[in-house]
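Action item from last week, closing it out:
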Amino acid sequence: MTSDITLFVNPAAGRGRGAGAAQPAARALRAAGFSVRTVLGADAPDALRRAREAVAGGTGALIAVGGDGMTSLALQAVAGTPVPLGVVAVGTGNDFARAAGLPVRDPAAAGRLIAASLKGDGGRPVDLGLAGGTYFATVLASGFDSRVNDRGNRMRFPAGRLRYDLAVIAELAALRPVPYRIRLDDGPELETEATLVAVGNSSSYGGGMRICAEARTDDGLFDVTVVGPCSRTTLLKVFPKVYRGTHLGHPAVTVHRVAKIALSAPGITAYADGEPLGPLPLTAETVPGAVRLLGAARPPGAA
């Protein structure tokens, strides 16, 4: 294994924590004997191009410094290659890192753990999802939650969490079931109405909402959570349970475990790892062992 590794940094992550986090992570890695270089980009496409160049050039590891969005970008460079992925989680949600038992907002500890893994097991193989040519590590969202994202992205004021909260209120006021066509694996196409359909490679999204609470990344399967038609009152009662994962027992909720799913619904945008994938229809499939994750205490999503 080469001792040259690459930090892939989002300076804006976590309201500016990304830039500061790179330094203690790099110090920990250098103290362990690794040579560290940093990759930044003018924008996401430029950053991804630079990350792919580092992977093609034989870097010993690609270390994403930022949130779930930065991890998702790094996955596009390392998935299907021998280069392992490290995660220094300093973003807002950090769902993938939390599910894997990785340090959150402690870049020095993350750097030490990554160094130990590079010298030890070389990382744990984990599954990824693949949809429309894009790999994802956490959850592919569609329906109510993706409409909230759409609305929030269109809003220019206010900033931060309040924008999301206002988008939720607006979408609740306009709540209506979505007519889906769903194909699970190679079964028949099903027509159903649902409030949302979430395809989980791991368990959570949105900073701890365990929408696919029992999903794990070492079984070659998605957990697909379907929330059927609900009234506003029912959705408001169920919503708090998502943070504990206890919503899965509600009669409006069903879960399927599949290796592939095709989704179609009018006017719905799919999001994966919090980033827009594009409008439905699309097909998502699991890619078992698509990347080696450094320092994971457990397969992301495992209890």
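Closing note: The chain has two domains: 4-122, 136-289.
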